Amino acid sequence: MKKIHTKLLVLCLVYCVLALLWVFSTDLLLQRLLKNAFDIHTLQVIGSCTSVLFTALLLYVVGRCHASRMEHQRKARSLQEIYLRNAAAIFESTLEGVIVTDAERHITHINPALGHITGYAESEVLGRTPSLFSSGLHNSDFYQDMWHALSERRFWSGEIWNRRKSGELYAQWQTIRAVYDDNDRLTHYIGVFSDVTLLKRSREDLAYLTHYDQLLDLPNRLLFLELAKQQLERSLTMDSKAGGALLLIDLDHFKNINESLGHNTGDALLKEFAARLHRCQSNGMVLARLDGDELALLVEQCSAERAAALAQRILADLNQVFILQEQELFISASIGIAFYPYDAQNIEQLLRNADSALFKAKANGRSTYAFYSQELTSQACERVQLATSLRQALEQQQLVPYYQPIHDLKSGEIVGFEALARWQHPEQGLISPARFIPVAEETGLIAAIDRRILEQACRQTQAWLNEGRNLCFISVNISSRLFHRGELDIQVAKILARTGLPAHRLILEITESAVMEDAEGAMIQLDRLRKLGVSLAIDDFGTGYSSLQRLKRMNVHKLKLDQGFVKGLPHDAGNVAITRSVITLAHNLGLRVVAEGIELPEQAAFLLEHHCDLGQGYGFGRPQPAVNIVWQSTASMQYGQSAMAARPAVDRLPKRSAQVHTQ
């Protein structure tokens, strides 16, 4: 304002000087140039009028400039007022806390958000310093660095922990700016902050979900791989005195628990399973859930003896009864053990080795542990190569049926055949089913193999019938994978239509365990197959865990007595009791009994004596290609069949219900 007054005074003085110069100069000039007083007076009047007009014009111009400047200032003030109102509205309504202090750091203004975040009222903080909110978590060096940044750069931003009025600690992201006036003097500090506690918790929750299993609260595969990688790298250093071990632990038949008792029970069992493993865990061990019911235990500085002792302890703990929802459950586990860095130089190889050992433990009967060896890797590579070759074998028609005769035990005559899959490799020759069937089940090729063998067997049986062979049936195994596909009955109907084989000539053998995988679904599938007119047999009966009530509901036509029970006949008391019971049970339900695995005459004689209906095994004949089958009226093995056949029928076999299909 003082500058404006000074400029105005200078302008007035200049105008006065110029005006006076104009007045005096014009009078002197007129007196010298003109002698006539009238002319002089006239010109003086004209000069005065000109001066008045000039002054008026000057005043008008000055007035216009002043009015324009005033309008500009008015607009500027209006814009500034709008800006200030907006700033005030933002200050009042923003969700971020805003704090203003003077140069001595005393609080002069706060916005409502600060009160909501900290819990303090405005009256409680005005005049105080921001140390009121200090959490005590930061040392003096932290604050010195902050004030140094404000002094040097006039700006600081970062994360800081403060304390609410309630005493609760919270994290905030804060930006502080130092405000200076036109003379470069510090006048205020303005701080803006946001509560990032929830954001930090969200990040922590996300990190937990990313790296931990929610059900068992254990590291998941992602975190385990990172931890195992670090541990493996440490073991490769010069300072490492010993390697470690990886134990892969997999529950046996856990799928049956989920399907029979429900996933809630399965989850509860997994929690108890993990809790028992926790009891075996000590320092230097990492326990993680890799997938489903497979857990991993990584142990530092672990010898083979220690790993074996740990595996035995785990198996012993798991063999104890599980009590879930007032229900007792028993379950076992298989453990594969691999060592590092001796057997593996990276985590991927270590997992492969442990998985190979786990496969070996399962192949050894489960409920045990197995160590990795190079031989297991060779076997795994062989399985991979075998799977590739098996796909080619399907395409190149290398899988063919071999036929094992099934004899009527009373007469000794061949009444049917069981079609068994065989692989005739062009270079390796005949490959044992024990090698390729497990691979086919793992890769899912078993269903395609079943369909191929089923169609070829039906076509061959019809050809024999056309030749006049006295053949009652052909029996074909159906894998669990093919059985549980909903379209099995449709596929069987199409095969029967293509080959021309009557439905009653076909017997489909389904294992007891396959039926129990999905008991209700199995009942529906069995009913559809019965409606086609085919006969049904339960294979390997006695090795599963089906109930008698469910067996009755299956409404099948035959039971196949597992060869494990036949092998000990007639001297093993347990096998004798089981065999008698199965035969009696089957006949009381109106079912026929087929005994498999008969190799000795005394076995056949015992079965005949106890009214077993049919029998098969190496004692009668090995599986052969169709062209090599020797058709003979009676079995070459003598076990008393002729004497039994001579007895009256009423003495040989108890009456059975009409449910039995005449074969």
Automatic annotation (TrEMBL):
Keywords: c-di-GMP, Membrane, Transmembrane, Transmembrane helix
Segments forming domain PAS: 90-129
Domain GGDEF residues, every copy: 242-374
EC annotation from Swiss-Prot or TrEMBL: 3.1.4.52
Domain PAC, chain residue ranges per copy: 156-208
Cited Gene3D superfamilies: 3.30.70.270, EAL domain (3.20.20.450), PAS domain (3.30.450.20)
Pfam families: EAL, GGDEF, PAS_9
Signal sequence coordinates: none
Superkingdom of the organism of origin: Bacteria
The UniProt record lists the keyword Membrane: yes
Transmembrane segments: 41-62
Broad enzyme group: hydrolase
PROSITE patterns xref list: EAL, GGDEF, PAC, PAS
Limits of the EAL domain: 383-637
GO molecular function, one term: cyclic-guanylate-specific phosphodiesterase activity
NCBIfam families: GGDEF (TIGR00254), sensory_box (TIGR00229)
Protein's name according to its UniProt entry: cyclic-guanylate-specific phosphodiesterase
Organism: Azomonas macrocytogenes
